Amino acid sequence: MIDVSLKVLLVDDDPDILELLQYNLENEGYLVETAENGKIAIDKAKVFLPDLIVMDIMMPVMDGIEAGRIIKQLPDLQKTYLLFLTARAEEYSEIAAFDIGADDYIIKPVKPRALLSRIKAILKRELSESPVSEKIVIENLTINKQNYSIAVNNNSWVLPKKEFDLLMFFVTNPNKVYSRDEILSNVWGRGIHVTERTVDVHIRKIREKIGEDYIRTIKGVGYLFSNS
Fold it and tell me: Within a 10 A sphere around the Cβ of 48, how many other Cβ atoms?
């Protein structure tokens, strides 16, 4: 049982899935709301302000990718984790999900216990992290650890959590080459089954904001963050 009542929004057009997941999550102590499509999810998320959204992709009215894209742009939901739970197993759907800032991507069917394990892995930082106001400055890059924001010259962004986690991993481990598998293990964690392509997508998104100079590709090996 978790010690703090974290909030989870479940989004799926299958009422049986919603009922089953809601039952299991509430038994673990989570506060749970449900929505039947992406449009309802957006409206509920604005009021409920969940710590995590578990979202299907294929839904009527509005699909999960579009709903997730809109949710990730809302100021009050910048720190909300987004997990996709879907029958869409093709790579382009997974890439589209991570492109909008998803933190995990799980293929149906999944056993409730396995899903709970993934949710706990994502949310465990919410129970242990304390806000800090310190900033990290590397040449023209400023990183604010309190609000997940970065600034480069006169431009600033609030990063999705997984992009921020990945950037912080590089910043705190500079001038060392890491393989994609090592990055997945350190940033996503063991037992979180995402593809190595996920690393490439997130690094591309980070480079779009901070430029090409900081994160270098070491051909045939992996990536290196240079702070000088």
Answer: 19
The CATH number assigned to the domain holding 175 equals 1.10.10.10
Closest CA to 186 of 159, 166, 172: 166
In a domain, 1, yes or no: no
Q: Are 13 and 60 in contact (CB under 8 A)?
A: yes
**Residue 146's pLDDT band (boundaries 50, 70, 90)?**
confident
In a domain, 69, yes or no: yes
For position 95, which CATH number holds?
Answer: 3.40.50.2300
Query: pTM for the whole thing?
Result: 0.68
Confidence grade of residue 30 (pLDDT, cut at 50, 70, 90): very high
pLDDT at 158: 86
Q: What is the dihedral of CA 127, 76, 42, 16, to 10 degrees?
A: 10
Positive or negative, the CA dihedral 126, 71, 136, 184 is positive
Query: How many structural domains is the chain composed of?
Result: 2
C-alpha distance across the termini of the chain, in Å: 45
- Assess if residue 2 is contained within a domain: no
Last residue of a domain, one of 112, 128, 144: 128
| 82 and 23 together in one domain | yes
- Is the pLDDT reported for residue 190 higher than 70? no
User: How far apart, in Å, are the Cα atoms of 192 and each of 27, 46, 83, 227?
Assistant: 23, 28, 12, 29
